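Folds vary. Our protein:
___
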Amino acid sequence: MFFGTFAVMEIVHSDLESYLEHTTDEENSLLKMVNRDTYLKETMPHMLSGHYQGRVLSLLSKLVAPKRILEIGTFTGYATLCLAEGLKEDGLLHTIDINAEQQERVQGYFDESPFADKIRYHIGDAAVILPTLNETFDLVFIDADKKRNLFYFETIINQVPSGGLILIDNVLWKGKVLDSKPDNQTKQIIDLNARLAQDKRVEKVILPIRDGLFVLRKK
């Protein structure tokens, strides 16, 4: 019975995701290519933000109209390109990833986009690179190694002005945050969520999009 119920839930989720994608704006041709290439060439393509979440990120960025964006965790650049859609004309986006093997291909996507001169792609450890970025960020998207999410948040919070947004991905962790006996990685995410829920510096809400998106607005 459990496995049958689980299979039905997976089908419903897939159908719902398809419905959401068909009732939002389409991906442009470059995003479709990044999506396709990621599923063909990457061993963990599910890390891609994807069509629906990408449109959410784009819309949030356009609502903020940021002059500066920071992204921690580039992967194949899909979310980067979505976030860049909201940049002001003189805006700039810094994105950081530790995987040098993807650099040439991902940089190629950026070069093909209308935002080629607005994206600064950093390869290396974010903990090392962040202190070198002497910027104020109107929008931050954290989607990297989950065990350091709280460190990234605390590192960057003072560089976000009042009204700025910090977005943290994967905060529902496939529903494991509800487990009665969570594993260590899930415990770290539960702890992060609990700490952010009590943080008086930000207004906050978790959107149940894909694997959970924490939206935090600096007071």
